[in-house]
Amino acid sequence: MARSWRSGRQGDLDARGLVTVPPFMEGSLESQIAVLAGGAEPDEAGTSAVTRLTVTTSLSAVVQSAADAAGHLADEDARARTVAYRVSNLDSANRMPESVRVGDSLGTAMTLMVLRDYSQLPVLDTDGRLRGVISWESIGLARMADPQADLAAATVRAQEADRSDDLLDWIVTIQKSG
Q: pLDDT at position 99, please?
């Protein structure tokens, strides 16, 4: 039976006598963690290796950084942290998408979609704000109603994700809308 990714990584760490501070399954992908030898993690009594090392002045920058990260564990434990893959982690969320503008022809949009193998395109106004999207489905529906339909007729309402949203929260919407 295949083991899960999480248990596999935890097993790999355990086999090597390592721990992560904070635990690697807490926080977001942007969170910093320190990988430490088992038993070196901070403890309430202040007897761990990290606690003792933080008071010395001859630490390398790497060890000091790990010790600092571990020292902040108490603050992070006070808050419940969850693993999140933010929309901002996607490369496409960090650049302007190819798009068409309000007033462009439907032919221009269709040409771009064919050339780039896109299933949909955002429609932006002159200020670059999202006004909707067009898709092969919306074009087909608009053309069935009116063979001379223009871009405005094929444009449908769009949902816009915030960069800080958890991507997993959008999975159902993405499956339904593309």
A: 96
CA angle 170, 23, 56 (to 5 degrees): 135
- Strands in 100-101's sheet, in edge-to-edge order, are 100-101, 120-124, 130-135
Cα(54)–Cα(68) distance, rounded to whole angstroms?
A: 7
Strands 100-101 and 130-135, by their bridges, are unpaired
Domains of the chain, with CATH numbers?
A: 5-78 (no CATH), 87-177 (3.10.580.10)
Total residues found in the chain within this entry: 178
CB-CB neighbours of 25 under 10 Å: 13
pTM of the complete model beyond 0.70: no
Q: What tokens appear for 138 in the block? A: 């919306």
Q: Per-residue pLDDT for 61 more than 70?
A: no
Do 73 and 42 meet the contact criterion of CB atoms below 8 Å apart? yes
Higher pLDDT, 20 or 134: 134
pLDDT of residue 105: 97
